[in-house]
Amino acid sequence: MTEVGVGLIGLGNVGTGALQILTENARSLREKLGFRLAVKTVCSRNIHAKKSLVCPDGITRTDNWRDVVNNPEVDIVVELIGGTATARNIIEESLKQRKSVVTANKELMALCGPELWSLANANGVNIAMEASVAGGIPIHTVLREGIAGDSVAELYGILNGTSNFILTEIEKSNAAFDSVLAEAQQLGYAEADPSADVDGLDARSKLAILAALAFGEKLTPSDIFTEGIRRITPVDFQYAHQLKHTVRLLCLARRTADGIVLSVRPSLIPQDTILAHVTGAYNAIWIRGQYGEDTFYYGRGAGSKPTGVAVVSDLMRVAREIRFGSPERVSPFAHERLGEWKPLPISTQELPYFLRFRVEDKAGIIATLATILAKHRIGLDAVLQLPREDWRNLPFVITTEPAKEQAIREALVEIRTADFLVEAPLAMPMERGFGGGR
Amino acid sequence: MTEVGVGLIGLGNVGTGALQILTENARSLREKLGFRLAVKTVCSRNIHAKKSLVCPDGITRTDNWRDVVNNPEVDIVVELIGGTATARNIIEESLKQRKSVVTANKELMALCGPELWSLANANGVNIAMEASVAGGIPIHTVLREGIAGDSVAELYGILNGTSNFILTEIEKSNAAFDSVLAEAQQLGYAEADPSADVDGLDARSKLAILAALAFGEKLTPSDIFTEGIRRITPVDFQYAHQLKHTVRLLCLARRTADGIVLSVRPSLIPQDTILAHVTGAYNAIWIRGQYGEDTFYYGRGAGSKPTGVAVVSDLMRVAREIRFGSPERVSPFAHERLGEWKPLPISTQELPYFLRFRVEDKAGIIATLATILAKHRIGLDAVLQLPREDWRNLPFVITTEPAKEQAIREALVEIRTADFLVEAPLAMPMERGFGGGR
């Protein structure tokens, strides 16, 4: 076999990036591999509209994915259409035909990774998914091989570039969420329906995949407490800065004696940590290993070519296996809940909290809040109030001593009935679980 | 085969770390692998003195490395003694006996990697060397697999933790090199003979390995321009800070139209880059890919357990190959100089330079220096002089417009004859080839 055949389904952003690299960089890839990675066919729903597509001679084009999966020259099927319906059909059909699969589909792999893996294994083929998480950062390779000898204790990530772009724009320009979102949409960083990004769902799928791999436990998106960034305002950054912190949509998976805490939520992180320096549409992952201590990985979170690199690097690995033969593989997923590291409810987490209130100013507000917090055994750390003019919508912040999330929630339920509140309080944990570069 | 047998030669810092992980973490490793990674024998020159060594029953101890290599139960030999003489014998003998090798030996792999790889390949076995570069950072895995689909354009690294510790201590405490070195020696960060670290030789070996892997070109330490950190003083940091830069022992491999520039030298880097935030005994690598854009990797540069993780992760990968069969492998080394990316002399590099002089103050010094620089067609950017009392040893700095290193050198040769100099000028390039987190 002097080549391994590739069929590409989906010619959006990532598909065209991968195709470009496979074409332009073909010589270098062949030198690294010792054989050719040959694209045989490409598929897109609207293939006939893709006139500008750089697609070398000899590559057939189709709008029917079954043509790709059934093509006898195709050894590896690349699924890049996203979603969970057709994509699942494509992957299952490919595996049944004993073709390995490379996918960027975080949603599907987070939901049904273990089942699809079992199907792949039963058919003696592989599924690779580097491109499903953190675009240009080879974090799947790092966890699967690079630091496989370690036991991950904690993993923190900024895994959604759109949210990180929006948050750091709010931070930089003091603009409101809605106007920054509109800007991100215009720049192509955010979708017309931004929910998957700004409500944390995209990050949740990615965290589910990484945490499963890191802890060797069966974890699904529903195990992950998730909150989006829609309520973050410039004032939250102003108060965070006073505390020498910033705000990021933080994904975390933290092993404790009782299990794993998993969450995706806006959180305060200290300004002097490397994670706080991750701005714009970048992603980053901070890992603390039981033996290897801390490592940190940073790069483009998305984008045609960075994610294309992930697809092509996966193709190289899978093609080598096909070429050189590797009958057994180790699953990146746990197939049953081992129970050793079961997910814990977020309510058990104990951290200091940043509570931001908006009130109609009157006497006794702090006294009322302090009384309610004390009743729930939550110690106050600081009360911060920047000078403001509008007494009818006055934002201020209380930070607490480390407290159980459960207590914070119960206190906030009680606080919510107070007549001075302009809107529901905003609560963010103040993270300090990771070290910094200085 | 329900297990793969391991023999460990060298029980220093890294060896005891690896043994501890293999022992303590055995259950987790077995779960990930699906089979057992069984240490069969350990070897140390002074094995009888290692009474405190935690070494489970069933592991034989020896002070003769041939016992390990000849042990029929050993499938993989781990070489952790360092140096190039006995280590080479151990590795060659192991490969000839068709045993794969895991090594942390940067010096040997930088010098004879391609030859040893050929020997391994001829015998159908593997050599893995993750632990040879950047301790806890799985950078070898990243380059070999994680971003294999990309073409690396530039690679910047802080690859010697000892030098980075010393430099950041000088920066923090304004102490002299010698006193900080003594402190580093007391803390165990620096050897009694610190030359390999502070003269850049250790970093040079690491860069040779990484650059060969990144560019697929045959590169050896002698291709790399190398300068150590002995001449760096607190005053250099003070001037660098005025320029919003800091000083690091920077390793770089940069592809240009004509070839690759390779160097290890103290360099100015902008303070607002992530690389500038790497302090203490940490290592980091910044990579710019043609497609994947920038990625960044950070972690412990050395240490018993972080480097032990690299050894154990390599063992897992090699053990999987042995267990599942993988007859052909792709070399991490180019075996001949392909010529496409031949190393270029550093003299061709064009960058702004930071020139620090120490002079006995008198009239006309700047005029003299400016005249000589102008003669060599070097444009001045700024002249910096912090207030000082001692006119007989006055440090000041000239920064230049981008200039060829060759021109800088020639100008400095001419300047060196000036009667006002207290010591030879210090020249550092001002790097700006990598982006920042902000």
Outline:
The first copy, chain A, has 438 residues and is α/β, with parallel strands linked by helices.
Question: How would you describe what is shown here?
Answer:
2 copies of one chain form a homodimer. Chain A has helices at 13-24, 26-33, 65-70, 86-96, 106-122, 139-146, 161-173, 177-186, 195-198, 201-215, 234-242, 304-324, 365-375, 405-415, and strands at 3-9, 36-43, 60-62, 76-79, 100-103, 127-128, 152-158, 225-226, 245-255, 260-270, 282-289, 293-300, 343-344, 350-351, 353-359, 380-384, 394-400, 403-404, 426-429. The first copy, chain A, has 3 domains: 3-134 and 304-324, 3-Layer(aba) Sandwich (Rossmann fold); 139-301 and 339-346, Dihydrodipicolinate Reductase, domain 2 (2-Layer Sandwich), CATH 3.30.360.10; 347-429, 2-Layer Sandwich (Alpha-Beta Plaits). Chain A is an alpha/beta fold. In chain A, helix 4 (86-96) links the parallel strand 4 and strand 5. Strand 12 (293-300) of chain A pairs antiparallel with strand 12 (293-300) of chain B.
